[in-house]
Amino acid sequence: MKRTFQLSEIDEVAQTILDTVPHKTLLFYGEMGAGKTTLIRALVKNLGGVDEANSPTFGFVNEYHDQQDQLLGYHFDFYRIENEAEALDLGLEDYLSPETWLFMEWPEKVSSLLPTQTVSIYLHFIDENTRSIEFSPE
Questions:
Q1: Up-side HSE of residue 106: CA atoms within 13 Å toward CB?
Q2: Between the CA of residue 91 and those of 51, 56, 85, 94, what are the distances in Å?
Q3: Which of 26, 52, 106, 112 has the lowest tally of Cβ within 10 angstroms?
Q4: What's the CA gap between 38 and 95, in Å, rounded?
Q5: 103 near 40, Cβ under 8 Å?
Q6: What would the DSSP string read from start to end of 90-125?
Q7: Is the Cβ–Cβ distance between 19 and 110 less than 8 Å?
């Protein structure tokens, strides 16, 4: 799927992703400010999350829950790690599960550690209110 959208349409874009992806591990690529965290916030909301999704840049990972306090998923931001060994030291492998939603920003920094069943999502900044997105559900 390739689409240009306004930020006001982010919930619709998030629902399209949730309706079409075959795997729960989503890899988000895009420059700083492209809207990766904003899209993840919309995904968590559309999944029924009660937690406000924020970038875990300084904490490495955020955990999100649904209204029944059941684990919904994990949100990783690898921007500040220096190498893959650092991600392993932080316990990345303990979070990798195909049953849980995994939202990963800057996955190129841990490419050899990623699960095999993933969906890559590319976001591009067009202007202050416009983005484009590309992903393949397979």
A1: 19
A2: 22, 15, 10, 6
A3: 112
A4: 22
A5: yes
A6: TTHHHH--TTSEEEEESGGGGGGGS-SS-EEEEEEE
A7: no
Q: Residue 136: its pLDDT value, please?
A: 86
Quick one: tokens of 5? 């959208």
> CB 23: neighbour CB atoms within 10 A?
15
pTM of the model: 0.93
Residue with tokens 């991600």: 87
| Placement of tokens 């988000």 in the chain | 28
Q: How far is CA 105 from the centre of its chain?
A: 6
Backbone angles phi and psi of 109, in degrees to 5: -80, -15
- pLDDT computed for residue 121 by the predictor: 98
Give the mean pLDDT per block of 10 residues along the chain (138 residues).
96 97 96 94 94 73 92 94 92 89 96 94 96 88
| Alpha-helical runs (H) found in 26-109 | 36-46, 84-89, 92-95
Give the three-class secondary structure for 44: helix
pLDDT at 102: 96
